Amino acid sequence: MSMQGPQQDGEDLNHQPWYHGPLPRQKAEALLLQDGDFLVRASGSRGGHPVISCRWRGSVLHFEVFRVVMRPRPGRPAALFQLEDERFPSMPALVRSYTAGRRPLSRATGAVASRPVVRQGPLRRSFSEDTLMDCPVRTEGFRDRKWSNSQPADLELTGQSKEDHSGAGTSTIPISALLRTGSDPMLLKAPAPLGTTADHLRASDGQLHAKAPTKPLRTPSLALTDASGSLPTYCELVPRVPSAQRMPPGQSCLETESPWWEAEEEEDMVEEDRCFARPQADVSFCPPDNPSCLLGPQNRPLDHKVLCTLRGLFLEHHPGSTALHLLLVDCQAAGLLGVTKLQRAAMGVASGLELLTLPHGHRLRLELLERLETLALAGALAVLGCSGPLEERAAALRGLVELALALRPGAAGDLPGLAAIMRALLMPQVSRLEHTWRHLRRSHTEVALAFEQELKPLMRALDEGSGPCDPGEVALPHWAPAVRLLEGEELVGPLEEGCERLLRTLHGARQMARDAPKFRKAAALRLRGFQPNPELREALTTGFVRRLLWGSRGASAPLSERLEKFQHVLTILSQRLEPGC
């Protein structure tokens, strides 16, 4: 029985169909036939440690899973499992997270495990699995004999029978059964005998259990050669080591399974522990261009097959669910959620809402403006791309208006997302579709009234800096007026009104930066318990929309050139739908 009680079948590694036990590497590679195929095995050359074998881009890659032994404490697991990002209380939890979210197993390879290879036949077990996998070490039969009070109890007895202790000072325990602790997460090339190791350990040192290192690993263990001396066959991982001080006393480590936006580090809440750090460089919150599950390595603009897939994807989700997906992606793009410690150190502040008001936030401001424009173009395309009957275009209009209502203050509270949808609905190419809007007013009167009487006045107030901005109603504030002003755009309108609007915009920017921790709490509260769809989440990212609209080659063109060309495309589509309006 482990420290957390008996495992359920869903968390027992031996009950997982993708776990093949002590399977040789050559046999594992023969089972992986297509990109995305994966299995988990116990590596013989790595002391029985769990290894994820995955075929990606024609090659079979092997990823050893780091295992960190925890201090015994009721209510938490005996060990945590980690690749590069967060830690998990069990191997099944780790596999679920990476496969369900289609997350790359490593940043360097971008390999995505998507299809498990099911084990055929009974599972073979080995001694090393009991000591290094999810199953706890069985040492209860040896706890009545303690050789020395100066050494941890049963250190020399683990994995041995009572008859093995007739000799003193030596140990016959196999090297593959050595426990790996969090204070030494690296696999040693030539491990010392256990008896020798025990002589250097004292019960007061606490070296049997995890102490999170203060620095990341400089030489990842996965870069070592195999025991046979052959060239490395394991992919190098660079795990992100969390600080040991982040876990509140008594908190269960099972919370590592929570989504990252629920377990967000709130360093800005402890003002007395913070000190000013000089900004080092511009920081980007755009995720890397990982392999897409919807677009191939190369794609043409407005691929018909992808557009049909996206249409079905959005129809499967109601506006409230789509609004939460957009809120999640917008919070990450604006640096409100998911900000790493390195990013905080580089930008000198705690969140992107503060960074975008500073001189060195120029890159972030440009990224946010590009995101606003690309999402607006994609929204307009959702209407203008409907070449079918009038009812189809009216239904697309209705869907955008309902999404805007789900994004407004008091609902999802994603004001940048609301601004992008409203910008799409108010584009000249869309607003000129008189027959379509007339059909919307006849068939969906309530939606049309909400657009005219609620959404349009709300958007006008937000652009003028007088709209709602309370963190209780809003999860992500409307940053567009401040960003445009800081990037040198001139305010339109009479001089007196422009001065008042300028003052409101500057005051709103200061308020937004000051209330960044409150907005973070409000966003995390709305996303609590939310399980996003990986494909829909990807479809709302800036990088995906950029490639969808302009193709993999055109996406690298200057933004102004891309916007001008696509506006021309939308004008042609609008004229074809309703010529002469």
UniProtKB/TrEMBL annotation:
Q: Which segments constitute the SH2 domain?
A: 18-117
Question: Could you tell me the Gene Ontology terms of the biological process aspect for this record?
Answer: small GTPase-mediated signal transduction
The molecular function terms in GO held by this entry are: guanyl-nucleotide exchange factor activity; phosphotyrosine residue binding
Keywords in alphabetical order = Guanine-nucleotide releasing factor, SH2 domain
Tell whether Lipid biosynthesis is among the UniProt keywords.
Answer: no
- Family annotation (InterPro entries): Ras_GEF_dom_sf, RASGEF_cat_dom, RASGEF_cat_dom_sf, SH2, SH2-Ras-GEF_adapter, SH2_dom_sf, SH2_SHEP1/BCAR3/NSP1
Q: Fetch the Pfam families from UniProt.
A: SH2 (PF00017)
Residues of the region (Disordered) are: 1-20, 143-171
Stretches assigned to the Ras-GEF domain: 318-580
Q: Which PANTHER family match?
A: BREAST CANCER ANTI-ESTROGEN RESISTANCE PROTEIN 3 HOMOLOG-LIKE PROTEIN, SH2 DOMAIN-CONTAINING PROTEIN 3A
Protein's name in the database: SH2 domain-containing protein 3A
